[in-house]
Amino acid sequence: MKRIVDMNTKSFICLMLLFIMGALFVGCDDVIEEDITDENIVITAPLNGVTVVSNSVTFQWNSNSGSDDYRVQVNDVSNTIVVDSLVSTNSFTYPLSPGVYSWRVRGENFAYQTAYTFPVSFTLEASTIMTNQTVILNSPSDNFPTNSTTGQFVTWADISTADSYTLELDRDVSGNVSTINQFPGITDASYTIGNADMSTDGIYIWKVKALNIITATETLYSTRKILLDTQVPNVPVFVAPLADAAENQNSPITFSWDNGTDPGVVNTTVNSVLELASDINFTNVVQTYTVASNSESHTFTATGDYFWRIKNKDTAGNESSYTAPRKVIIN
Fold first, then answer.
1. What is the separation, in whole angstroms, between the first and last Cα of the chain?
2. What is the pLDDT of residue 26?
3. Residue 251 confidence (pLDDT)
4. Alpha carbon 310 to chain centroid distance?
5. CA distance 75 to 169
6. For position 250, what pLDDT does the model report?
7. So what's the pLDDT on residue 1?
């Protein structure tokens, strides 16, 4: 009887092990992501047969709790896809030329996706009235960080019925905003802001409006920011392991440092670069970490002498020099 019980117990354990092993082959995201395959997305605007009088269309739909993103597709009258964008909200504005279009949208997460909505047709008509139209800014992106003092090329989507554009450049220093220059009568959908207007560090606000002469109307300004930061970040200061040639019996080792306060009137994001090498000249780099924090842990796979150093770099393109190398001994 005992033999039978033991065999049954072993069989049960084997089955449980097989179940656990099978579960390990299922991706973690598949386990935690909601299955949205049978969910429905409902379009709210533009609806079928609607005529939109503007230079752009705002596509809207009801959000879905299990969807992390939404894929929006727009086709022209020849059924060619002219827009295929993945967005994280349930609203998306895009500039289009006058014409007849159809659009659809679906929800997506890491593991699943809904079906596309049934295609909805709409017509986009141009208007010489600028009041209800919007200048869509293209580049650079909002809050664009740069260390270039040679000027900045900016672009926007052209409005077919606009006669000209006005670009205004403001500068924000510690909350104090002043107008640097204004450039009226631009007939292209782009402009190069000269280096004389962007010569010192600050938050530069560039804004564009469109004008129509016949109707004497204009759009509101569309606005973005450029972060001009030419200040080099601080050289990091070692925190731990503090002593040169420090002996550490255990791995991993946590390296830490202090970056101090980022200098300058504009503080773009600073990341630290930690290098580990097996020689003091860093000709044999064994690992490089780029981190937003002031520490990083590393597990050494072999004993011996290693060297570490750090530098800082910001998203505007400025880099500090490396610290002097420091040795750590792994026994």
1. 55
2. 43
3. 75
4. 26
5. 36
6. 67
7. 45
pLDDT in tens, 215-246: 999 999 999 999 999 999 999 999 998 777 66
Q: Supply 5's token pair.
A: 């019980």
d(CA 57, CA 228): 32
CATH of span 43-125: 2.60.40.10
CB 79 within 8 A of CB 110: no
pTM here is 0.78
- Give the model's pLDDT for residue 248: 65
H-helix or E-strand containing 103?
A: strand 99-108
Q: How far is CA 196 from its chain centroid? A: 30
Residues forming a β-bridge with 223: 207
Closest CA to 128 of 163, 92, 77, 87: 163
Give me the DSSP letters along 252-292: SEEEEEE--PPPSSS---EEEEEEEESSTT-SSEEEEEEES
What the block records as the tokens of 305 is 């002498």
d(CA 266, CA 203): 7
Q: Under a CB-based contact definition with an 8 Å cutoff, are residues 264 and 201 in contact?
A: yes
At the topology level, CATH places domain 137-228 in: Immunoglobulin-like (2.60.40)
Low-confidence ranges of the chain (pLDDT < 50): 1-5, 7, 20, 22-30
Return the CATH class of domain 237-330: mainly beta
How far apart are the C-alpha atoms of 124 and 131, rounded to whole Å? 16
> Looking at residue 64, what is its pLDDT?
87
Q: Please give the structure tokens belonging to residue 294.
A: 């002031």
CA geometry: angle at 285 spanning 282 and 287, to 5°?
140
